[in-house]
Amino acid sequence: MATETTDKELTFEQALKQLETVVSKLEAKETTLDEAVSLFKQGTELSAVCEKKLTEAAGKIKQLVGNEESDFNVGDDNDFTK
């Protein structure tokens, strides 16, 4: 399970890989309802870890760019899927 301590221990890549595994298990037809609920909870926690890591990385990049008007724009919605 992802927790606040796991958040600091997992890299973005590790959290994403675990999230992909959770999704695969949720898509499996043999997953029970109880397992699916537990996996969903784990998935939302891992998703939060990934989002936090992406937000932190975007902040660092924005600092490096120097907060000037540039082509790099970090949106307020933090939607990294676009």
From TrEMBL:
Entries under NCBIfam families matching the protein: xseB
Catalytic activity entry: Exonucleolytic cleavage in either 5'- to 3'- or 3'- to 5'-direction to yield nucleoside 5'-phosphates
Keywords in alphabetical order: Cytoplasm, Exonuclease, Hydrolase, Nuclease
Lineage: Bacteria, Bacillati, Bacillota, Clostridia, Eubacteriales
GO molecular function: exodeoxyribonuclease VII activity
Enzyme's top EC category: hydrolase
Role this protein plays: Bidirectionally degrades single-stranded DNA into large acid-insoluble oligonucleotides, which are then degraded further into small acid-soluble oligonucleotides.
Record has 4Fe-4S as a keyword: no
Keyword Hydrolase: yes
Protein family per UniProt: Belongs to the XseB family.
Subcellular location: Cytoplasm
Gene it is expressed from: xseB
Protein name as annotated: Exodeoxyribonuclease 7 small subunit
Assembly with partners or alone: Heterooligomer composed of large and small subunits.
Xref: InterPro entries: Exonuc_VII_S, Exonuc_VII_ssu_sf
HAMAP family (UniProt xref): Exonuc_7_S
Entry's EC annotation: 3.1.11.6
